[in-house]
Amino acid sequence: MSRRFPGDSAIAGMGERFPVSKVYNPTYLLLMKTSSLAILAVSSGALLLTGCASRGDGRIVNPRQPGPALGTAVGAATGAVAGNVAGAVVGVGQGFTAQAGKSFDNDRRVVRTWRTETTSDGRTIQVPVEVEVDAAGRPIGEPRAVSR
Fold first, then answer.
1. Which helix or strand (DSSP H or E) is residue 136 part of?
2. Percent of the chain with pLDDT over 70
3. Do 130 and 146 form a contact (C-beta atoms < 8 A)?
4. What span, in angstroms and rounded, lies between the C-alpha atoms of 133 and 111?
5. In whole angstroms, what is the distance from residue 40 CA to residue 142 CA?
6. 37 SS3 class
7. Among 49-53, 71-75, 120-124, 125-129, where is mean pLDDT lowest?
8. CA-CA distance, 139 to 143, in Å (whole number)?
């Protein structure tokens, strides 16, 4: 009979040795579950304890001292300038794309009205008249009767 080692198992009647998979090894599963639970517990505790040293306004230093006060003022000014510059860049980019897109806008806006006309034999009929308008509703061209 062959010698058995602690990670081997024998299939009944075969006499051969096959290593036990880590998936079915209860010791391996217990260690994996324990280590993942430990990692989860430690990371949760670290997350909960990170804000313990800060005050209500989020500063750790005394804001009445000249260094932190100056740093706060410079940081606020720098943030405002950087934010306005970024906003200006985005605004210019959006305006450029909006104006460039207008040249490719081929939507026709047509307003149809009905005009009453009298025929030569005395009948009164209504004739549709279409007027092309811009996006604000101002007429672009001459009104024309619809031909069928």
1. none
2. 66
3. yes
4. 7
5. 75
6. helix
7. 49-53
8. 8
pLDDT for the residue 96? 93
The CA distance from 100 to 91, in Å, is: 14
Pick the range with the lowest mean pLDDT from 45-49, 51-55, 99-103: 51-55
Contact 109, 133 (CB under 8 A): yes
**pLDDT tens digit string along 120-147?**
999 999 999 988 888 788 888 777 767 6
Residues 6+ apart with CB under 8 A from 61: 67, 68
Question: For position 52, what pLDDT does the model report?
Answer: 58
Q: Which residues of 3-33 are buried (b: 16+ CB within 10 A; e: fewer)?
A: eeeeeeeeeeeeeeeeeeeeeeeeeeeeeee
6 in Cβ contact with 20 (< 8 Å): no
Closest CA relative to residue 27, chosen from 12, 42, 6: 6
Decide if 68 contacts 61 (C-beta within 8 A).
yes
Lowest mean pLDDT among 5-19, 111-125, 133-147: 5-19
